[in-house]
Amino acid sequence: MNESNSVQQRRVSFVALLFFVLFMSAAVILMVAAAVMWLAGLLGSIALSCLIFGGVAAITAFIIWLASVRISIQIMHEWLGTVYDTSRMAKSGYEYVKSWIALLFE
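Request: output the structure for the sequence above.
Response:
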């Protein structure tokens, strides 16, 4: 019976999270639309205000991408370091076995 309650609790949590993401996305879209219209009222051009907000959004996305890429590169560097250490150990083991077999056949 506990598993049934746990599964039901997960479903409720998932649905709540889904609605949160849906409504937060709608709120952000409406906020950006209102900001574009406000800037268009100040500048007198909807196209110019769209370009300005698009440029700001692109720069923000680029900065977020750079921040996330740095973490990914750091993780990849650690992983490659582990792969390098493992391959170096495999190579030294291979050379040891090769020298041992060469001593047997001399």
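The mean pLDDT is 86.
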